[in-house]
Write a structure and sequence with these properties.
The structure is a single chain. By secondary structure, the chain is an alpha+beta fold. It has a seven-stranded mixed β-sheet. Strands 4-7 form a two-stranded antiparallel sheet. The chain has a two-stranded antiparallel ribbon with strand order 10-11. Helix 5 packs antiparallel against helix 6. It is built from ten helices and 13 strands.
Length: about 350
């Protein structure tokens, strides 16, 4: 990807976010000039971003380490920091299929000799394999945390992942925290007697925990080809629903506890009007329907029922289909009548 146009990188960045169901509002008056300006909207909030992106390549000739990858900071004199805006400094590695981000705060000013920022190839390989990896590099202001994320985690990075750049002393723990149990998280927090370090580690644990939570949604949407399992609608109106409600202790973020549903059918699923049985049959809760009638809120119920298929459309891969046992438990958790639990 050496020589790729900046506008193509920003197009890829925006498209990646939109596939994750974000709404992206772009300032297209400066498509070929860094930085690009972009507002990223989700149900959880908004982030106004300044984007400085380059292709991640080996570069540097035979004198550079074989395992080194880098971005070359061309056509900019510095990386500005502006109140109310998130400055994103990074690039795309076609080789490993991941995004890579440096700490913009450390590169406000630099030499006009087209400097480069480095990262190790093992970090990029790991991010491509597990979704997230960090790398420590020396900078003029001390150790800098470089974060590499798979495309499924880009939206998480934009909203929350930038906090990783504050973890200079604990970056090596990110690998452990990605798969950590609650007990391992507590041990990580308790092994230091310093309140300051404990507070900093707490922020890191929360950041990585949010990363784990964020992996569920794109994995489910991808399994269902970004279409609703009930009506096959796409249109960026599809969510990842938990079959066993999140509040239940038995709920997990395993993909077999997920189902892709449009916003209409997701709402009906969560409030117990719409259900999916263990044989994937779609059912409507007659008790809930009667309650809606009593409240005078049953307008549209006939059209709703008539539009339902006999069964949901499940993914082709058996490994990612809803677990029948979870479907049964999900109905029980939502207090469906026993006659429907099959």
């Amino acid at each position: 990807m050496a020589g790729i146009r900046f506008s193509e990188l920003t197009d890829r960045f925006a498209a990646n976010l939109e596939r994750l169901s974000a709404t992206v509002i772009r300032d297209r008056t400066r498509d070929d000039t860094r930085p690009a300006r972009m507002r990223v909207l989700t149900s959880g909030g908004a982030s106004d971003c300044l984007l400085f992106l380059w292709a991640v390549t080996h570069g540097g000739g035979r004198m550079r380490p074989e395992d080194e990858r880098r971005i070359q900071l061309t056509n900019v004199a510095g990386i500005p920091l502006r109140p109310g805006q998130r400055t994103v400094l990074g690039g795309w590695s076609e080789e490993f299929g991941v995004w890579v981000f440096w700490d913009a705060r450390r590169h406000v000013r630099f030499s006009s000799k087209s400097p480069s920022l480095q990262v190790g190839s093992m970090c990029l390989e790991q991010a491509g394999r597990v979704g997230l990896a960090t790398y420590l590099r020396k900078s003029a202001t001390g150790l800098e945390v470089v974060a590499a994320v798979a495309p499924d985690s880009l939206l998480w990075y934009v909203h929350e992942g930038h906090q990783l750049h504050n973890a200079e002393d604990d970056a090596a723990a990110v690998d452990m925290l990605v798969e950590a149990t609650a007990e391992e998280e507590r041990e990580f927090l308790d092994e230091t007697a310093s309140e300051v370090i404990t507070a900093r580690r707490y922020d890191l644990v929360e950041t990585v925990r949010a990363y784990r939570d964020a992996k569920f949604r794109p994995a489910v949407l991808r399994a269902y080809s970004y279409r609703c399992a009930v009506c096959q609608c796409a249109l960026k109106l599809v969510d990842a629903a938990h079959i066993i409600p999140v509040a239940d202790p038995q709920s997990t973020d395993d993909i077999t506890n997920g189902i892709a549903l449009c916003r209409l059918h997701h709402g009906a699923f969560d409030n117990g009007l719409l259900g999916v049985q263990s044989n994937y049959c779609v059912v409507v809760n007659s008790d809930h329907q009667r309650h809606l009638t009593q409240l005078g809120l049953d307008t549209g119920i006939d059209r709703f029922r008539d539009g339902l298929p006999a069964k949901i459309t499940v993914p082709a891969s058996i490994e990612v289909r809803p677990d029948p046992r979870k479907l049964l438990l999900g109905l029980r958790c939502r207090q469906w009548p026993d006659t429907f639990i099959a």
